[in-house]
Amino acid sequence: MGKAPLLLPERIRKPFALLLGVLFGFLLQKGGVTRYEVIMGQLLLVDFTVVKVMLSAVLTGMLGIQVLLHLQLVVLHPKHGSLGATAIGGLIFGLGFGLLGYCPGTAAGAVGQGSLDALFGGVAGMLLGTAFYSEIHHRIEPTILRWGSFGAITLPEVLHAARWKVVAAVAALIATVLSALSLLGL
Amino acid sequence: MEWLMVPRWPAIAVGISIGLLECITFLLLDKPIGCSTAFARTSGMIEKALRGDAAAEKPYYRLFPPVIDWEWMFVLGIPFGAFLSAVMAGTFRLEWVPALWVGTFGPGVLPRLLTALAGGFLVGLGARWAGGCTSGHGISGSLQLAVSSWIASAAFFAGGILSAWLLFSLARG
Questions:
Q1: CB within 8 Å: B166 and A106
Q2: B152 touches B34 (CB < 8 A)
Q3: pLDDT tens profile A51-96
Q4: Using the beta-carbon criterion (under 8 Å), do A94 and B158 form an inter-chain contact?
């Protein structure tokens, strides 16, 4: 399959992306997830705002993309993965996440609401961390990153099931979790 | 327009809106939302400014050239949107140390900044190591049902719960 048929012309993609970024930042701040207390509350398992925002975004996006895929208006871009890259990198990210109390997107949002720790600690640290990664990438790429490689596969491919069935099952699972959180008053 | 002025919206409403935003980026930009690549490109730009074009020859910067792309513009927009939201709700304030931190570790700026710097370093390193962050893997990848993204999301939260618990339980004794 080729490109998405409704792809915007090159010259308006960047201004449009800026506008979408403004919207995204507005939403993150309104959701409370640019606040240190809210993210740490999630990681300390006392405030489930982050999980609720993420799961409802995944649910909505998954259903929307399923419809758009059916209409052949979008192309999927699943990322490659391996245990060495995804699990180890994910754990390193997670350990930092608990210390920082923001992730890359929410740190950018926190800067906009005036959180100076997100700017001089978070953004500065993330730039140093990505710079450090650029130094080690060519060393770990042929070794650690390839360990346990499984490629850019999706759940329907792993389960050998029709995509819509997996979408329906995951949607039901997310709806159950969201309802349970609501029933528990979390 | 009063709903634009309130400090918080329900989490589910925000999540649904972000899900719709994802549909728009797939439809019109042919890309999922992501944030951490923009940080890698920015550090490449800084390195290029400091060390010259030799920096751009690094293998990683050949994969992710230090240039302004649509995702970089997207991430640039985030603080402006959050600023608008906070100002309209009257919650904008310059703050060095978040209240939760003050309550546990005291008001000192330096311990918070150093912890955030160390955390930020690991977040930047881990995001590029894993090929995405809470946006690119956590939301965009999960909604595509990518196996890598579900594993990454589990690892993000497993690591985060562990370090948050260690940090706060050690401090509270």
A1: no
A2: no
A3: 999 999 999 999 999 999 999 999 999 999 999 999 999 999 999 9
A4: yes
- The reply to whether residue A130 touches residue B16, judged by beta carbons under 8 angstroms, is no
pLDDT tens digits, residue range B137-170? 999 999 999 999 999 999 999 999 999 999 998 8
The 10s digit of each residue's pLDDT in A105-140 is 999 999 999 999 999 999 999 999 999 999 999 999
Contacts of A70 in chain B (CB under 8 A): none
Closest CA to A77 of B141, B103, B131, B154: B141
- 């048929």: which residue's tokens? A5
> Which residues have C-beta within 8 Å of that of residue B56, sequence separation ≥ 6?
B44, B48, B62, B65, B66
Q: Which of B78, B71, B81 is nearest to B33 (CA)?
A: B71
Of the candidates A96, A118, A170, which has its C-beta nearest B121's C-beta? A96
Residue carrying the six token digits 């009063």: B2
Q: Going by C-beta distance under 8 Å and a sequence separation of 6 or more, which residues neighbour residue B3?
A: B9
**A 74-133 → B contacts, CB under 8 A:** 74-81, 83, 85-118, 120-133
Å from B173 to nearest chain A CA? Answer: 15
Which residue in the set B33, B97, B163 is minimally distant from A99, CB to CB? B163
pTM of the model: 0.97
Distance CA B61, CA B43 (A): 10
Q: Do B133 and A53 touch (CB under 8 A)?
A: no
Structure-token pair, residue B55: 């920096």
